[in-house]
Amino acid sequence: MVDSVSVLLRQGRLITAGSVGEPVDIAIADGKIQAIAPHLNITAETELDLAGRLVSPPFVESHIHLDSALTAGQPRWNQSGTLFEGIDIWRERKQSLTLEDVKTRALATLKLQASQGTLFVRSHADVSEPSLIPLKALLEVREAVKDWITLQVVAFPQDGIYSAPGNAERLEEALKLGADVVGGIPHYELTREDGVKSVHRIFDLAEQYDRLIDIHCDEIDDDQSRFLEVVVAEALRRRMGDRVTASHTTAMGSYNNAYAFKLMGFMARSPINIVANPLINLTLQGRTDTYPKRRGLTRVKELWQQGINVSLGNDCIQDPWYSLGSGNLLEVASMAVHGCQMTGRDQVRACYQMITENGAKTLHLGKHYGVEVGKTANLMVLEATDAIAAIQYRATVCTVISRGKVLATTTPAQTTWQRDASA
Ligand code: FE2
Asked: How confident is the model at residue 367 (pLDDT cuts 50, 70, 90)?
């Protein structure tokens, strides 16, 4: 152990798998965590007294669309609030996309997220337009930000793979250009048969180019939308489960229980990852219902109870599908607690894991994630006592450390009473 390090965190309490440990010192040098112990007798260029604050591995954004972020209201607002009006508006907006336009908004969104503790992001890039501008822009951004945030780019055929000539070719071209993940949208293909064919094609491409898979799957209230079973079957047959993610799967909220539980058994065997996006799913789904009105969320609690890896994403930040959003994953976790009725103490803690460790599993980060000696020093300090309080109060992320260096600091809000409010 060296006598001096670059950053020394004094008396922070580590959160691992939802549980909080006793206060420890954490020494960081050469970009890595060098030591963790109750008290370290060393000096540092930068020493921070955490006074028992929470030290957590960073948040993981499992699902976002950086190419459309920060475009809400352009060229018009989504008045119906539906997924499909959002797709129509985006089709209009993307006619005027430029590389600079996408890069500027993507970078601004990543900074917004990183300042709030997110250091790993999976973003979808629309590859339905001939120019492939969203993909090319995000690949450039991935390179530009790599010293402080890890960006995975999904080649996402927003308008379907077989719905228009050239889409299938563009998806493959996107992989040749360097996309990390193959995407798809089987429920938006013109027919059930095209949807099934699209899933097979996605798996073929993932095998051929050695890429991960993340499919927008059954993002609809239709109880007959059953492409998830096709994804699970392919993952099982090809033994690719941990490299495969099905995003949204909101139709699961409408499946009958007999079918849903049979399917969850297959999912646990596969074992694929599921991403729920509660902010968006709660607002986009159920729009054709009167009352009773469906929540439009996938079965997060039941999937978690079956041991299936579930993580959470923002999906949209101020775009044609969702005009709100701040990029704060604690807000996403809070919405999961409410919308999925995850209110038991273990369940709230599980929602925290869904924006940290579970997200790392979805993104297939492996040994690159976690606050442990020998690992790259990516971590954050929260003004909170535990995971539940962090979600409850949307705790301020006071310090973000990326690749061993302090990246961002935020001062928690402070209230000063101006009158005696004791009685
Ligand atoms: Fe999405």
From this structure: confident
